[in-house]
Each structure stands twice: as structure tokens, then as C-alpha cells.
Amino acid sequence: MKQNRIITMALVAAIAATTTSCHIYKKFELPEEGLAGEVAEAQKEEIDSTSLGNVAWDDMFTDPQLQALIQIALDNNVDLENARLNVEIANAQLLGSKLSYLPSLSLTPNGGTASYGGSKITRDTWSYQIPVTASWEIDIFGRLLNTKRQAQSAVLQSEAYQQAARAQIISGVANCYYTIVMLERQLQILNETADIWKQSIQTMQDLKEAGRYNEVAVVQSKANYNSLLATIPQTEVSLYQAYNTLSLLLNRPYQKWDVDTAYEPAFPEYMEEGVPLKYLAARPDVKAAEQSLASAYYATNLARTAFYPNLVISASGGFTNLLGSVIKNPGEWFFQLAGQLTAPLFNRGQNIATLKAAKAQQEQTLNNFEYTVLSAGAEVSDALVAYTKNKERAVNLKAQVENLSKAVEYNNDLLKYGTATYLEVLTAQQSLLSAQMSEIQCLLEIQQSAISLYQALGGGR
């Protein structure tokens, strides 16, 4: 009879669930309106496997020295290890939510005796029970289902964060590496230029002694030379700091790492125009924001389940010698079955408040998701424009260096024949050095914008 009542309770609850709470069982989908709807449509499109965001990092960065450093960072970086542990934590929580569908079991053996009016305690006065109790929550109203789905979203979100951390580390090492290459090249140019300018001082000195120039030319040449020498320690400090930053990314003490200053990176071809939205949807931060929105959606569903009753079936069985108030030896097996339907009565106000808060938080999360997509688009367009314009700039800077090198050579020849002034020579030397430093800086900016574009498109696989 009791079993029939429990079955009846379950049927009533199931009918109520299907008629009043269908929304609770729906899986999360991005809203159809606004930017989120555009992302949802873009996700249906197939992403080209050869797109920049899908290029493996060792195909993107082909310098063997850089590849070795990136691999060290991936093996040892603390942030990436913590991101991996966060994935493990999320998976453990997901396992817990899946196991909540199973009944809970407990074994609680007990025994006792009593003495009245000084009676003796004998074997026949001892009572004992060895029960096994099981409790099973029937998930008619989706509480366990939404808890599990929320945990699944947390796993996907943590995996997206792990990919974002990986991409950031790869990009960070590459940026730092190319910064070191740039500083090493600039330092080399400064030292070579210092040797040339030192010879120019001697030339001015010889021309002064020959009566061609006065002391002003010599002093001005020395001043320019001293200014150049003062720049060298400043560059060395920046170089030391760059090596230190790279060491931290690799989770290593300070070390002067091997870099190939002669290597010219060749990056894959980039898109010269706009980037389709489907590529932005593949970014790890956009994926993480989407899963955060999914988690908020399931949290709202959980708030809705609080309005519906919980159905719990409990069963216990075991062996005992206590039958009512009579102790019987030997004992007998026993079995009990019970159902409990708990419905909220006086906490409805709290449930309404919780649901309103959950809906507001879901709306906030949607706003954050759309802002993340917009930010992703801005990052991609900024990197794309920077890459394109810096390549144009590099062409002109290279031509400028070539022309200024000729100008310095011609002025030095004219100086010896007395048809050029020392000021023209000094100006040409300074202009050449400035152009050389700018050209190297521009090459670094091309590399950095390429790295930024790679990361902005979800690269780092």
C-alpha cells in the first residue's frame, strides 16, 4: 500500500513538472536577438582550418630558439599550471553533480540493554539493529539536472581560461623574445656607430691641425660621441629587464637566453580586410564568457526549482532482534520504504527574491558577454591595422636608412675635400642613427602586431 502511495506521489509531481516547469529542462542557447544572436548564427558556420587562429604555435613561430623557449614556458609556467588545476577542480565538481543522481547509502549498527529494579543484565536483555539506509532524490523538477549542467559549463569555462592562459604565455614569450632581438640589434648598431664616430673625432682633429676647421668642430663631434655613449648603458638596462621578464615567464632565475638576432621571422599570410564574426566566436575569452552566461542561465533555472516540491524516497533494511517492544533471539530481517514530498509554503517571498536576483545576474552576464565580443573585435581590428600600416612604414624606413647611409658616405668624402661643413657631417650621422633605430623598432612593432593578431584570433594551440 505504501509503495502505491509513493508511486502516486511521483506521478502527481511528474504531471505538475511537465505542465508548469518545461523551461527548467531546456538546455542553454544564446539569445536570438542582438549581438548574441549574431554570434549564435556565426557559430553555425564552419571555421577554416587554415585560418590564423587555428595555426599551431610552432608553425606560427618557426625560429628554433624561440620554439625551445616557448616549450619551456608551457612546461613550467605557474599561471598555466594553475589553469590546468582549475580544470581538474571543475571536473571533480562535475563528477560530484553526476553522482548526486545516485542514492546515498549508510550503515548505522547500534545496540543496547536496560536494567530495571536491579534486575540482572543477561543475553536476553540485549537489543541490536544492523540497518542499511538508502535515500534517493527523484529529480522531477530539474534541480539535479540544472546543477549538473551548471557544473558542465564550469568545466568548459575553465578549459577556455586554460586555453586563454596558454595563448597569453605563448604570445608573452614571443613578444619578449623579439624585444630582446630588437634591443640586441640596437645595441650592436650603437657600438658600431660609436666606433665610427670616434674615428670622426680623429678626422676633425686632423683637419683642425691642418687649419681647415677650428676647435668648435672637434668639441661638437666629441659631444655627439658622448651622447651616443650615454645611450648604450640605457639600452643595456632595457635589455637586462627584458631577459629578466623572459626568465619569469619561463619560471626560471635570471638568465641571458640564446636568441638569434640574424633570424628574420616569416609569418603566415594575414587577412587584409575585416574578420568574420565566426573567428571571434572561437576565441577562448568569448567561449569563457558564453559559458559564464550558460552558468547564469542554469542558476536562474535552479532558482525556479525552489518553487516546486522535492520528492525523496527512503528505504532501510537490515537485521534486528528488537520487534516492537519485544526482544527476540535470534533476530529477523526487516525492510522499510517511505516517500517524502516537501513543498515550500512560507518561504515563497525568499524564493521570489532569489529568482529576481538570478535573472538580474543573468542579464549582467549577457551584457558582459556582448562586451567581450565587442572587445575581441576591437583587438583584432587594432592588430590588423597595426600590422598593415607598420609594414608600409617599414618600406619607407628601409629606404630612408639606405639614402642616409649614402649621405653620410658622401659628406665624409666632401669633408675631406673641404666642400662640406662639419655640421652637415654631424647632422647626417645623427639622422642615420635615428633612422636605423626607428627601422629596428618598426620591425619589432610588425612582429608584435602579428603576435597580437594571432592571439586576438584565438591562436595558441
From TrEMBL:
It is found in: Cell membrane. Keywords: Lipoprotein, Membrane, Palmitate, Transmembrane, Transmembrane beta strand. SUPFAM superfamilies: Outer membrane efflux proteins (OEP) (SSF56954). GO terms for molecular function: efflux transmembrane transporter activity. It is a lipid-anchor. The keyword Ion transport does not apply. It comes from the Bacteria. Its main location: membrane. The keyword Flavoprotein does not apply. One of its GO terms (cellular component) is plasma membrane. Belongs to the outer membrane factor (OMF) (TC 1.B.17) family. This is TolC family protein.
